[in-house]
Amino acid sequence: xxxxxxxxxxxxxxxxxxxxxxxxxxxxxxxxxxxxxxxxxxxxxxxxxxxxxxxxxxxxxxxxxxxxxxxxxxxxxxxxxxxxxxxxxxxxxxxxxxxxxxxxxxxxxxxxxxxxxxxxxxxxxxxxxxxxxxxxxxxxxxxxxxxxxxxxxxxxxxxxxxxxxxxxxxxxxxxxxxxxxxxxxxxxxxxxxxxxxxxxxxxxxxxxxxxxxxxxxxxxxxxxxxxxxxxxxxxxxxxxxxxxxxxxxxxxxxxxxxxxxxxxxxxxxxxxxxxxxxxxxxxxxxxxxxxxxxxxxxxxxxxxxxxxxxxxxxxxxxxxxxxxxxxxxxxxxxxxxxxxxxxxxxxxxxxxxxxxxxxxxxxxxxxxx
Length: 369
What we know:
Blueprint: H1 10-13, E1 20-26, E2 32-35, H2 41-47, E3 57-63, E4 71-80, H3 86-105, E5 109-115, E6 123-124, E7 137-138, E8 141-149, H4 153-171, E9 175-184, H5 187-195, E10 205-213, H6 214-217, H7 222-230, E11 238-243, H8 247-251, E12 267-276, H9 283-304, H10 322-327, H11 331-341, E13 358-360, E14 366-368
Antiparallel strand pairs: 1-2, 1-3, 4-8, 4-9, 5-8, 5-11, 6-7, 10-12, 11-12, 13-14
Helix pairs in contact: 3-4, 3-7, 7-9
């Protein structure tokens, strides 16, 4: 929450950090203070998106509550019918990304993922008659679940209809495409059924991300960038789409007490790329994966969206431009708050505000720069 905090309801109600009305914080000097717009407002600003753990220890918060509403959801998946249709698959992925800004403006938001060769099936076929040369479950594919508040399933389907028609007319003969719509009486029912999935823990991977605005998502260079990000099939790259921007996320940029990276306010998609390695991979193999993510995949996204930034909680820990990418225009103000309340840098993390004054030696010890 202190770094931003996204979720399925963010587009309609704002990021997690923007829900905080007040917080109790233990400062570096041991004092416990109450931070809100009226007192310790600078600390209040910093912990509401300026990344937690570096200005003080938050021990409690008072947050907003919102009325529930009905939710209608769409589950879309598609995959190439065989390997000769890979170019069409990539064009379809690009088409969906092109559509996200307008879909957000019409109320949709959600999460998705895609890969060229996932270790496990990504798209499942349950009701499609396939030829002998076509697989029934797909390790190369795209899937997303997006939802809209306060609309019926029929209304949701009508809003998405132009995109669905474009997909079908352009790729209906080369891709397996499956779409379903469902409605839920409350947000809790929707979240439990389609969104509240516990992710596996304990896996090792190199991670990077970029916030993508309308210019990036509709750029002529988008298709080329997506190809660089996903890489080759043998890399087993996973790309995750956090499509929760726009709406209230954008509107909350007017809040003078929000320390959230300003790039969130203009972006529609938080795009995450991840690569893992075999359990028996040696150090050089792991370094090559990290190098590919940092120097190839993340750099490609930066070139596509040079004026945005990245979400630190799911960003590249080796990003040398982390102060600009993770904090944007707020970096200087957050740096002053850090100096004011923790001048000796009691609180530290490798890419937090203030960490630029330190370096880790080969043993892991911190040394002043």
